[in-house]
C-alpha cells in the first residue's frame, strides 16, 4: 500500500507489538496477512518525530528535502540522492526538523518480504517444483550506513510513484516493483561484500568492522556541510589513526578522502546548475570554495566544460525534452 500520511505513532507501535494479528492497516484497511505489511509513506511534512519504532526492512529517503534517521545509535542525515537502511526488528527513529516541506518516500518491506525474495533468487530452478509454495527462510541484513541512490534505483522509485498516480494502487504491480527494487539492493550488497574482501587479509569479522568504521566516516562527509571536514574529524569518526584511515579509505573506495569530497562537490554543483538559477558565485560559496574562480577552475578541469556552459547545455536539453 502507499500512504500519504504517517500513521498515528501509538496505533502503529501497538500493531507492531501485536504483530498485526488483527490484519488491520491504517484507517481500517484490511490486510491480506498478519505481520508488518509492505507500505510506502509518500507524503509532504514540515516536521515530525517518530522515535523507537521496531519496523521491518526499511528504506528512508526523500524526493525533496532532508530527514534524519537513527539506527543502532548512529544518526544519519538523509539528503536528496541518498537513502538509509534499517533492518528487520532494528529500532529506528525518524526526524524531520521544522522548516520547508520534506517529501518523503520511505519504503517498508513486508515482514518476511526480504527473506522470500532472497530465497527465490538463491533457489535453483530444478528445486522450484519440489519446494512448491514453501520457501526456506534466509535471514540477512544490510549495512546501516548512508548509501547513494544510483540511476537504477531512482528509475525504480519513479516507476512506483508514476504507476500509482496513473493507475491507482495495483497490489500485483506494487509487489513486483518492490521485488525488483529489493533485488537491486541485494546486488549492491554483493558489491559491498566484494569491497570488504579487498581489505587487508585479516579475519572476516575484522574486515567487516573496518568497513563499518569507514562507512561512518563516509556518512560524516555526507552529513556535514561540504568542504568542512578535516582529516582529524574523519579519522575520529572511524576510530582510526589518520595514517590507517587514509590508507584504508583509499583501498576501500578507490579515492582519497579529499578526492571523494571533491566528487561530492562536483555532483552537487551539477544538480544546482541544472535545477536552480543560483549564481556561480553563490554556488561556490554554498559548496565551500574559497572563491568562484577556484570552483570554476576545478569544475572545468574535471568536467571539460565551464559551469556557465554546463548550465546552458542542461537548460537546452531540458527544453528539448519538454517540447
Describe this structure in a few short sentences.
The chain has 323 residues and is an alpha+beta fold. The protein is built from twelve helices and ten strands. The protein has a six-stranded mixed beta sheet, with no helix packed on it. The protein has a four-stranded antiparallel beta sheet with strand order 3-8-5-6.
Features:
Arc Repressor Mutant, subunit A, 323 residues, 6-stranded mixed sheet, 3 domains, globular, alpha+beta
Overview of the molecule:
By secondary structure, the protein is α+β, with helices and mostly antiparallel strands. It has three domains: 2-194, Jelly Rolls; 198-254, Orthogonal Bundle (Arc Repressor Mutant, subunit A), CATH 1.10.10; 260-322, Homeodomain-like (Arc Repressor Mutant, subunit A), CATH 1.10.10.60. The protein has twelve helices and ten strands. Strands 1-2-9-4-7-10 form a six-stranded mixed beta sheet, with no helix packed on it. The chain has a four-stranded antiparallel beta sheet with strand order 3-8-5-6. Helix 1 links the parallel strand 1 and strand 2 (39-45). The longest helix has 27 residues, at 171-197. The mean pLDDT is 84.
Amino acid at each position: 500500500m502507499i500512504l500519504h500520511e504517517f500513521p498515528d505513532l501509538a496505533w502503529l507501535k501497538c500493531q507492531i507489538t501485536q504483530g498485526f494479528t488483527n490484519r488491520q492497516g491504517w484507517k481500517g484497511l484490511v490486510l491480506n496477512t498478519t505481520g508488518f505489511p509492505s507500505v510506502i509513506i509518500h507524503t509532504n511534512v514540515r516536521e515530525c518525530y517518530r522515535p523507537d519504532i521496531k519496523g521491518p526492512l526499511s528504506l528512508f529517503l526523500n524526493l525533496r528535502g532532508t530527514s534524519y534517521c537513527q539506527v543502532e545509535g548512529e544518526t544519519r542525515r538523509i539528503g536528496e540522492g541518498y537513502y538509509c537502511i534499517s533492518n528487520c526488528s532494528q529500532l529506528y527513529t525518524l526526524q524531520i526538523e521544522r522548516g520547508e516541506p520534506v517529501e518523503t518516500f520511505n519504503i517498508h518491506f513486508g515482514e518476511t518480504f526480504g527473506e522470500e525474495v532472497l530465497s527465490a533468487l538463491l533457489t535453483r530452478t530444478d528445486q522450484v517444483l519440489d519446494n512448491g509454495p514453501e520457501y526456506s527462510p534466509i535471514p540477512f541484513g544490510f549495512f546501516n550506513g548512508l548509501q547513494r541512490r544510483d540511476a537504477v534505483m531512482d528509475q525504480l522509485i519513479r516507476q512506483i510513484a508514476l504507476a500509482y498516480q496513473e493507475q491507482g494502487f495495483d497490489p500485483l504491480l506494487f509487489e513486483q516493483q518492490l521485488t525488483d527494487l529489493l533485488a537491486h539492493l541485494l546486488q549492491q550488497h554483493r558489491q559491498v561484500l566484494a569491497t570488504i574482501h579487498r581489505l587487508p587479509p585479516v579475519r572476516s569479522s575484522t574486515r567487516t568492522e573496518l568497513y563499518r568504521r569507514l562507512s561512518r566516516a563516509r556518512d560524516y562527509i555526507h552529513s556535514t556541510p561540504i568542504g568542512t571536514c578535516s582529516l582529524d574529524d574523519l579519522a575520529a569518526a572511524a576510530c582510526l589513526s589518520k595514517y590507517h584511515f587514509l590508507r584504508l579509505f583509499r583501498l576501500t573506495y578507490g579515492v582519497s578522502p579529499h578526492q571523494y569530497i571533491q566528487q561530492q562537490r562536483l555532483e552537487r554543483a551539477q544538480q544546482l546548475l541544472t535545477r536552480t538559477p543560483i549564481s556561480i558565485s553563490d554556488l561556490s560559496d554554498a559548496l565551500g570554495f574559497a572563491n568562484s574562480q577556484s570552483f570554476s577552475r576545478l569544475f572545468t578541469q574535471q568536467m571539460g566544460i565551464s559551469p556557465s556552459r554546463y548550465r546552458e547545455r542542461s537548460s537546452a536539453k531540458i527544453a528539448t525534452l519538454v517540447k
